[in-house]
User: What shape does this take?
Amino acid sequence: MAATEPIRDKKQLKELANYFLKKGQLRNYTLVLMGTYTVLRISDLLRLKWSDVYDEERQAFRTHITVTEKKTKKKRTIALNPQLLGALKHCYLHRRGDYIFANNRKEPKAISRVQAWRIIHAAVVELGIMGKIACHSLRKTWGYHAITNGDVSLAVVVDIYNHSSYETTKLYLGIRQDERDEAILKMTLF
Assistant: This one.
């Protein structure tokens, strides 16, 4: 399997999310936002249930989710971004079954990883977004923009990804030579 890339252009990321929103596909719209803002792997996203994000007793959405990652077995607590919460609230009104990303069958279960890939891939192709973009790209996109915008310290990004070093994160996010050149050329120190 080829390595995926982050979606480097914020405009394209917005186009991808809005592609599903315009079609009334709230589940898929929420998949894009949740994949990007939670930085979870697709295997962890698809296991999420409404009870993970919505407290039935309080009749309110949670501000954080706690997930034990399937791959690393590490427990993570993740804040739910306001934009993501908005998507979840809309999607909740049309929920089918226990899973956030339920299929459309009579007995709803979570969609498969293959189905999630098909959903993202078809939209990327239709929109003409270039590059190796797939479900894992959503996870990479957040970190790419956090680092390139300078909004988040490198140490925090490395920690969020559970990587052992900055080098691992750098390779993971696919920082390109033209981006390194731009950073050096635009810096004015005196």
The mean pLDDT is 91. The longest strand covers residues 64-68.
